[in-house]
């Protein structure tokens, strides 16, 4: 009889290391999130010990719930640790975005973009503030929204000059991108769009 084979579980390869531009204080937010998760885990361990002392574990729902919660926190801790170790973080002050030259699209620029789908030839126009890692806010009044510099679309746009169509491959399919205009953001736009710094979202969930 042939030996049983190990079950193959398909998992996406982790993203390669990257240089992530972040606002000042991002490192402190990561450290605070990690400390909060450690504190939460310690409290859950206490709950697990208390539930364990209550008898038969087969019908002890409190013990099972605490055990599952500890596993969820451990996954978040592992994800945050990998995220912190894998990437290099460079702090960028948004105040410098107000005085940059506008010869080609850079981090901190507000850009009006035309995206033409390569197959359907449909054209869409957007206006983005190319922002730092994790920024996804939208200004409801103007419609201006943040586009994280490490997103696939921003990666294809950065470095382009005005009026030069560029064929690109995006997750949604091949397209042609054209930068229609580039300008610096106003202080009012930065005040409305740049929200409090948040840690990265967990991949595993609760």
Structural class: alpha/beta
Low-confidence runs: none
Topology-level CATH name of the largest domain: Chitinase A, domain 3
Order of the strands making up the biggest sheet: 5-4-3-7-6
Topology as H/E string? EHHEEEEHEEH
CATH architecture of the largest domain: Roll
Rg from alpha-carbon coordinates = 23 Å
Summarize the amount of helix as a percent range.
Answer: 25-40%
Major β-sheet, in short? 5 strands, mixed
Q: Please write the CATH class name of the largest domain.
A: Alpha Beta
Q: On the 0-100 scale, what is the average pLDDT?
A: 88
Shape: elongated
User: What's the number of structural domains?
Assistant: 2
CATH superfamily of the largest domain: Transcription elongation factor, GreA/GreB, C-terminal domain
Short descriptors:
Helix Hairpins, five-stranded mixed beta sheet, alpha/beta, Chitinase A, domain 3, 206 residues
Topology of helices and strands:
Elements: E1 19-22, H1 26-52, H2 61-86, E2 88-91, E3 110-117, E4 123-131, E5 145-148, H3 152-157, E6 166-170, E7 173-183, H4 187-193
Parallel strand pairs: 1-2, 4-5
Antiparallel strand pairs: 3-4, 3-7, 6-7
Helix pairs in contact: 1-2
What does this structure look like?
By secondary structure, this protein is of the alpha/beta class. The protein is built from four helices and seven strands; from the N terminus they run βααββββαββα. The chain folds into two domains: 19-91, Helix Hairpins (Orthogonal Bundle); 94-193, Transcription elongation factor, GreA/GreB, C-terminal domain (Chitinase A, domain 3, Roll), CATH 3.10.50.30. Helices cover 32% and strands 22% of the residues. β3 and β4 form a beta hairpin. α1 runs antiparallel to α2 (61-86).
């Amino acid at each position: 009889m042939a030996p049983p084979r190990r079950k193959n579980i398909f998992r996406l390869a982790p993203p390669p290391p990257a240089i992530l531009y972040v606002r000042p204080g991002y490192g402190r937010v990561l450290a605070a999130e990690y400390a909060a998760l450690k504190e939460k885990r310690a409290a859950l361990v206490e709950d697990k010990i208390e539930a364990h002392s209550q008898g038969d574990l087969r019908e002890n729902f409190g013990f099972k719930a605490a055990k599952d919660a500890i596993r969820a926190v451990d996954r978040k801790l592992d994800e945050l640790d990998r995220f912190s170790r894998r990437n290099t973080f460079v702090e960028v002050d948004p105040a410098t975005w107000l005085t940059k030259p506008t010869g080609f699209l850079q981090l901190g620029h507000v850009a009006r973009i035309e995206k033409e789908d390569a197959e359907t030839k449909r054209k869409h126009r957007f206006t983005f503030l190319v922002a730092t890692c994790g920024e996804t806010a939208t200004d409801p009044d103007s419609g201006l929204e943040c586009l994280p510099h490490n997103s696939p679309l921003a990666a294809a746009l950065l470095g382009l000059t005005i009026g030069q169509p560029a064929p690109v491959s995006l997750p949604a399919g091949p397209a042609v991108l054209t930068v229609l205009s580039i300008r610096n953001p106003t202080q009012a736009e930065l005040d409305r769009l740049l929200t409090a710094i948040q840690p990265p979202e967990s991949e595993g969930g609760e």
